[in-house]
């Protein structure tokens, strides 16, 4: 089976490693279905203080991440044609399940994580294939967005979820589809009961109920 390599460029590589080594992503790495590598951006600086940021031209608050470390890092890390470089930005296009499915077909996906006030625009203009936001709010850095997207992409690689889990009928598999409510044992907890229909054994009725429920869950 083909392996998808994720490379995440950040000044906080430990943040990535601690998430990616656990649970499904950890197992998928052991099974060689994916490989998640965090790279310390400071290793790609050329000055003795390993400076990755500087003040903005034109003035304004905060610091901006410099173009050179990203350029040098990509020269070293990016391999072949089936690689995609993703810029994380609060003002990017909102990442979707369709993007996750599409990106799962690449050999390599590289994320650039910003910090401070963001990244020099020349990075996005010259080194990047796509720019994604994970929602309409501002985070302190691009590490969580990179992990969110890595996780969502990895789930779409055959074998990552294991045999029992199905990607066919999940929320967002089709535009606007949201999964029906799910229940497990016990049948009754305090005064809270599982809907009768799910205990009926009538698979046709259960299927119809689930369809209705998933329609009800559509919001906005
Ligand atoms: N000054 C920027 C703005 O107003 O859009 C926000 C910079 S934010 C404090 C620092 C970094 O966090 C960004 O460069 C980006 O990499 C990441 N980031 C923050 N919010 C994000 C979001 N919603 N989606 C993706 N990345 C985000």
What can be said about this structure in brief?
The protein is α/β, with parallel strands linked by helices.
Topology:
Elements: E1 4-10, H1 13-20, H2 23-30, E2 34-40, E3 53-54, E4 64-65, H3 67-77, E5 83-94, H4 97-103, E6 108-112, H5 121-127, E7 130-133, H6 143-154, E8 188-189, E9 192-193, H7 203-216
Parallel strand pairs: 1-2, 1-6, 5-6, 5-7
Antiparallel strand pairs: 3-4, 8-9
The protein binds S-adenosylmethionine (SAM).
CATH homologous superfamily title of the largest domain: SPOUT methyltransferase, trefoil knot domain
**Order of SSEs:** EHHEEEHEHEHEHEEH
What best-fitting shape do the alpha-carbon axes yield?
Answer: elongated
Main sheet summary: 5 strands, parallel
- Helix content, binned percent: 25-40%
> How many independent structural domains?
2
> In what order do the strands lie side by side in the largest sheet?
2-1-6-5-7
What ligands does this structure carry? S-adenosylmethionine
- Structural class by sheet pairing and helices: alpha/beta
Oligomer: single chain
| Named CATH topology of the largest domain | Alpha/beta knot
| CATH class placement of the largest domain | Alpha Beta
Which parts are unreliable, with pLDDT below 50 for 5 consecutive residues or more? Answer: none
Annotation field: number of helices: 7
Written account of the structure:
By secondary structure, the chain is of the alpha/beta class. The chain has 2 domains: 4-154, 3-Layer(aba) Sandwich (Alpha/beta knot), CATH 3.40.1280; 169-219, tRNA(m1g37)methyltransferase, domain 2 (Trp Operon Repressor, Chain A, Orthogonal Bundle). 30% of the residues lie in helices and 20% in strands. It contains 7 helices and 9 strands. The strands form 3 sheets. The chain has a 5-stranded parallel β-sheet with strand order 2-1-6-5-7, sandwiched between helices. A two-stranded antiparallel sheet has the order 3-4. Strands 8-9 form a two-stranded antiparallel ribbon. The model has no long low-confidence stretch (mean pLDDT 95). S-adenosylmethionine binds next to β5. This is tRNA (guanine-N(1)-)-methyltransferase.
């Amino acid at each position: 089976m083909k392996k998808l390599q994720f490379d995440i460029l950040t000044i906080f590589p430990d943040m990535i490693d601690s998430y990616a080594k656990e649970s499904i992503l950890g197992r998928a790495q052991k099974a060689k279905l994916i490989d998640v590598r965090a790279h310390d951006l400071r290793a790609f600086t050329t000055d003795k203080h390993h400076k990755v940021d500087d003040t903005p031209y034109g003035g304004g608050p905060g610091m901006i991440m410099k173009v050179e470390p990203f350029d040098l890092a990509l020269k070293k890390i990016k391999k072949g044609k089936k690689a995609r470089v993703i810029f994380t930005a609060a003002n990017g296009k909102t990442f979707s399940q369709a993007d996750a499915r599409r990106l799962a077909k690449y050999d390599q996906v590289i994320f650039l994580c910003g910090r401070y006030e963001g990244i020099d625009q020349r990075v996005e203009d010259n080194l990047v294939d796509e720019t994604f936001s994970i929602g309409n709010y501002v985070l302190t850095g691009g590490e969580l967005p990179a992990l969110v997207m890595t996780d969502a992409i990895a789930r779409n690689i055959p074998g990552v979820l294991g045999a029992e889990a199905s990607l066919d009928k999940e929320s967002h598999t089709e535009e606007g589809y949201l999964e029906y409510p799910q229940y497990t044992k016990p049948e009754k907890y305090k005064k809270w009961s599982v809907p009768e229909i799910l205990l009926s054994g009538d698979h046709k009725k259960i299927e119809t109920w689930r369809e209705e429920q998933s329609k009800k869950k559509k919001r906005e």
